[in-house]
Amino acid sequence: xxxxxxxxxxxxxxxxxxxxxxxxxxxxxxxxxxxxxxxxxxxxxxxxxxxxxxxxxxxxxxxxxxxxxxxxxxxxxxxxxxxxxxxxxxxxxxxxxxxxxxxxxxxxxxxxxxxxxxxxxxxxxxxxxxxxxxxxxxxxxxxxxxxxxxxxxxxxxxxxxxxxxxxxxxxxxxxxxxxxxxxxxxxxxxxxxxxxxxxxxxxxxxxxxxxxxxxxxxxxxxxxxxxxxxxxxxxxxxxxxxxxxxxxxxxxxxxxxxxxxxxxxxxxxxxxxxxxxxxxxxxxxxxxxxxxxxxxxxxxxxxxxxxxxxxxxxxxxxxxxxxxxxxxxxxxxxxxxxxxxxxxxxxxxxxxxxxxxxxxxxxxxxxxxxxxxxxxxxxxxxxxxxxxxxxxxxxxxxxxxxxxxxxxxxxxxxxxxxxxxxxxxxxxxxxxxxxxxxxxxxxxxxxxxxxxxxxxxxxxxxxxxxxxxxxxxxxxxxxxxxxxxxxxxxxxxxxxxxxxxxxxxxxxxxxxxxxxxxxxxxxxxxxxxxxxxx
Length: 534
Prior knowledge:
3 domains; 6% strand; disordered N terminus; Membrane-bound Lytic Murein Transglycosylase D, Chain A; 19 helices; Lysozyme; 534 residues; mainly alpha
């Protein structure tokens, strides 16, 4: 235990009515309002009347554990000054690890955090509402902030997707549809419901929101092994060791730092995204110990892959849409698609950025499948805006397997959209490419030829789930549109998983050996050539 840690007070805000017992202090603790030695500033948490630090009841038995959060209004000090908003329902600790990220987010990482803070204007109210409805700490919204930077289309190299960064298997495990047409990991509300279910399970097992967050990041098995190895259910105690990877050890401090800054943006020099303006003379909080985080450590990579990975583009419509080549010499016979009935508009919270930041978004229940380009034309909005508002849709149309779909559009286009889309003369058809089966064809071969999956072919043609044979001369519909724009819009392909480091080294070694062999072959005379010339 070093001097900084020894003099740092680790007092947690009460999260639950039935939570952990009295808090542990590392060595001597600082007195109220006095900065400890070594430049580290601990969290000064006390009642408004100056009473001693808060203590909560002992932990109940595992079977009766509740997730009902209790909001604390205790005072928190950062860098010697009180926070104006100290209302948290997630365990808040201010220690060197948290200060590290407070310094980064308000320093070299400010441009990143400011972007996520502005996005929070749309995401925080919606996610917090779902958390509240399920009796979960609303401050868990900052877990999503750290995971994705509040980006519906964020995607990691491990192929985790959406604001809560679910991998495919975990998303499906908690009820999210992930297929050729639809990726509900990108749907803010549905992915939040899945995250609620997962986090609730983690808390029920570990009895700690810090360990639940660590389990969300590293996996529950990793946390189980850590608890068994160190015989502790205290995240901070386990984090002192290097059993967790650095990403996981930093994960909880990032969440706490994000919560502190987002609830007190003006004190940290940010514009308050919820009122659009800052104080005239804000009292800015800044670390007086600039050496606490070395310059060589302050890189965007330290935000975690999930924070920096979306910086290629801010438009979710630009994420992962890659054009795959296909044979265009096949017979194409447009077929008449189902025409949607009258869209039924319903109100939904505004959680997506549009041209007008104050725009309200509503949902229209439309008969499927619906062509997104037709929706774009009827509403007068660019196709990219339709995609931004409905990021879970991966192709140019709504899933053909769904009879109706709830599409999101701005309230300002409601009248125009309803009038145009419901006009009998308006072309609402969804046309799929028709393919004439040749000798030797089967579903998998046709799918491979067009760089698509076999399952949507089965679904579109109502084939058996495991069917593969095709009748020669018959015509089948392919989940490919007719028209260049729609082809581009429908081509979506996930990047392959990043190979392990060990595998990468073997690959590089083989590549180096192959390169050396090629180099040697250039130096050696060619026997074949000498035979021909001799």
